[in-house]
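SEVERITY: medium
COMPONENT: batch folding queue
REPORTER: lab tech (J.R.)

DESCRIPTION
The queue accepted two submissions in a row. Attaching both inputs and their returned structure tokens so the on-call engineer can compare them side by side.

ATTACHMENT 1
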Amino acid sequence: CSDNPRKNEHSKIRITDQRMSIYYTDTIMVEFQIRRHSIQGASKHLSNTGIKLAKSQNEKPFDLVITSPIQRAMETAVALGSAITETNEILGFLPKEVQVLVPYSAGFHAFKAAIKNFPQVNQCRQRYELFFRACLTNLEPDHRALFVSHAGAVEMLILACLPNVDISLFPQSVSQLEGASIIFDGSQFKLNAVIRVDPNSAY
């Protein structure tokens, strides 16, 4: 998908100067996951343990799979059992203007505070939210989607959808393969589950 939503039978969407107007004609219910990539090896690729850990999640294939263009994110999606629909730079590393204010390893509390205190961080959050709406509005009801990204970006991506979520439900920061399952009803995002992963399940 792109940053700009396409029209479909469920809604009509218009974005002008980053302002979005949505006129809903039907209700969709989509479950999607935002996950950090699995365990990396000595190179930029997943390690054997990382591949085993992803396969141990026993996920059914997703209907839409978008990952960072970085190899380990793409390999994670395949190891989770799904073909990649596309890669998108927006799921890559955090923008530099965000990283200079909040280190990628800072965790949920720091990112949530930065969204409130720094306009450029909140603008990043808004761009992420528009990206998700663009992708998810075009899915059929009851379809599932997977987005694979990186440390720091995953926390921001989750907060883009759930800015008021109780972050005490989450770890301080996400580890490999962790993230969130979220429900999108065509208008609102709702936390479905916090995704925690035991790294020992790969053994």
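ATTACHMENT 2
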Amino acid sequence: LIVILCGTRCCTVIDSGEIGIEFHKWSTSEKDYGGVEGTCHGWVFYNGYTTDIFTYPTMVQYKNYAPFKVTAKDGTIFNMDSVRLAYHVVPNKACDIFVKYRKTLSEIEEGYIKTCIAEAYRICGNSFTSDSLMSPRAEFEASVRAKIDKSLGMEGFYVDEFTQQIDPPSSLIEMINAKNRAIQSALKSENEVKEAEAQAKSA
């Protein structure tokens, strides 16, 4: 009996950059909090037959995403390139994250977090015309960030940084360039008229 008990006794070390979650292997019911006993750090001894340890890193995580498509209020489609998220797990929410998802952070990044970003782009994009999305673009970016902060914050994640590069369609770029050229041409013509008037007065 002593040999059996010793054989099931396990030990692991949770370092300072992680948070450990001790849980019962065969208990996933929400009523008993998914079998979770609580968090742990340092040297941890546990019964390897009935219990296990899951860890989440607590340092900042960085994730780069493939481009997202955003449809503006007027139907113009933008690409959001170089999407980069920096975030970390809120330590006192680690157990809640584990109970709800029972997945690694890389799996959550490709699942829930990616969906949150796409949803933030969809909702915010529908509130901006192509012109207002481009200038001032900071308002659109702040709107997206606020939506992501709220969604991830509710799940136990803190967003340290979120950046993207807005890539408008070529047709919109040409339209903006044509508008700028027209403005410059009008200003040039106005200056020429003023110069001619000034010369006429001094003659």
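NOTES FROM REPORTER
Residues 9 and 47 are 5 Å apart (CA to CA).
No errors were logged for either attachment.
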